[in-house]
């Protein structure tokens, strides 16, 4: 593996035994054997082909906003999109964004351009690539409603362009969860709107988030998906679990579907809380909560 990794050094930045906690919004996670940041799209394609050729496992990482990395970390190579894929370009009512571009910033910049359709993204703290992967959404909308196409490096190392119908979007789901790949660039189709109206809507959404979500603490946002015709937060609160704690992890007293890191939480602390939540809600209401966060790494 060392010889293979040494070849990666010509394709981007390579870091060995790199702790992953600083790269996640939960601030939790053990080390990656290797953390690799490709120098660009071509370098990403070459790296995946190289790793596949030598049988080295790899894992994609965006901003780590919807991910719980295990305390033992991730074996093989973690590929993190970097500055080369952190860009935005407007073309009439289309917006093209690199995979590493902030989804929140995308919504802000679109609003400044007088484009509506991304207001829901103002509180989703991930990258464009991660948002496409998860079909991220809020406020009754999601990526699928504005998605036009994406350039993707498939797990085979093939560079393809997927249209909306290829993505098989559903609630917090895309084909990339079944068919591994890394988004390079996504294109969204928006609509012309009034800048002041868009700004007012985003300001109202932000005020609501500040009031209802523990944004000042390290978290991964919503931990569980909403079951049909209900809300995970309502069920967790109704089960009397707000404020329940295990080690350094706590079910937020402000929003029951958030688990916050109070300072020294481990992945095992979070997993213990998730297990307790699922069991309690199932016992009380007969509803099986499905995690929204991705649990990655060696257990």
Give a description of the structure.
By secondary structure, this protein is an alpha+beta fold. The chain has helices spanning 2-8, 41-53, 103-112, 128-134, 195-212, 232-238, 267-285, and strands at 12-19, 31-38, 58-61, 67-69, 74-80, 88-91, 94-98, 115-116, 137-138, 141-142, 147-154, 159-163, 181-189, 191-192, 245-246, 249-251, 259-261, 294-296. Strands 6-7-13-11-12 form a five-stranded antiparallel β-sheet. A hairpin with a 7-residue loop joins β16 and β17. The radius of gyration is 19 Å and the shape is globular. The two termini are 22 Å apart.
Quaternary status of these chains?
single chain
| Order of neighbouring strands in the sheet with most strands | 6-7-13-11-12
Number of H/I helices: 7
| Percent of residues in beta strands | 25-35%
The H-and-E topology, N to C, reads as: HEEHEEEEEHEHEEEEEEHHEEEHE
Report mean pLDDT, rounded to a whole number.
Answer: 96
| Strands, total number | 18
Indicate the structural class. Answer: alpha+beta
| First-to-last CA distance | 22 Å
Radius of gyration: 19 Å
What overall form do the CA principal axes indicate? globular
Low-confidence stretches: none
Major β-sheet profile: 5 strands, antiparallel
Question: What percent of residues adopt helix (DSSP H or I)?
Answer: 25-40%
